[in-house]
Amino acid sequence: MKSFKPSWGKNEMSTPQFENLRASSLYCNQCKTAMPVRERLLLVLADKEIYDYLCTGCANSVGQREVTFSEKRLAQARPSRRKQAVPESRLLLP
Q1: Is-contact 69 63, C-beta < 8 A?
Q2: Cys bridge to 63: 43, 53, 75, 91, which one at CB 3.0-4.6 A?
Q3: What pLDDT shows up at residue 73?
Q4: What pLDDT was estimated at residue 79?
Q5: Whether residue 60 has pLDDT greater than 80
Q6: 50 closest CA partner among 80, 24, 71
Q7: What are the helix (H) ranges across 1-94?
Q8: Is 55 part of any domain?
Q9: Which residues face 33 on adjacent strands?
């Protein structure tokens, strides 16, 4: 089982939105096709967390993702880009 490591280096130009990626589907050797995956926390270490990607079809492990605590803090410090629900008092109804 191989961990996904980006091919670009830290010195090259990279945009912050691509530093923290999560897979939604990966190729499964057992199913012989790309399948949706779910992420499971596998191991918590002093400096990082390791997540395992499991195929939703056969529950086979298809990859891993490592998140360092500095990356996690950085992601939490950034404001969320998702739209927040508009309070009812601000909704304009016809």
Answers
A1: no
A2: 53
A3: 73
A4: 64
A5: yes
A6: 71
A7: 69-77
A8: yes
A9: 28
- Residue 92 in domain: no
Total of domains in the chain: 1
Amino acid at 49: E
- What is the distance between the alpha carbons of residues 89 and 63, in angstroms, rounded to a whole number? 46
* Structural domain harbouring 43: 21-74
pLDDT at position 22: 86
Question: Tokens 């605590």 sit at which residue?
Answer: 69
Buried b / exposed e along 18-44 (16+ C-beta atoms within 10 A): eeeeeeeeeebeeeeeebebeeeeeee
Q: How far apart are CA 62 and CA 64, in angstroms?
A: 7
In a domain, residue 63? The reply is: yes
What pLDDT is stored for residue 5 in this prediction? Answer: 57
Asked whether the beta carbons of 36 and 56 are under 8 A apart, the reply is yes
User: For residue 72, what pLDDT is reported?
Assistant: 73
Q: Is residue 61 pLDDT above 60, yes or no?
A: yes
At residue 47, the 3 state secondary structure works out as coil
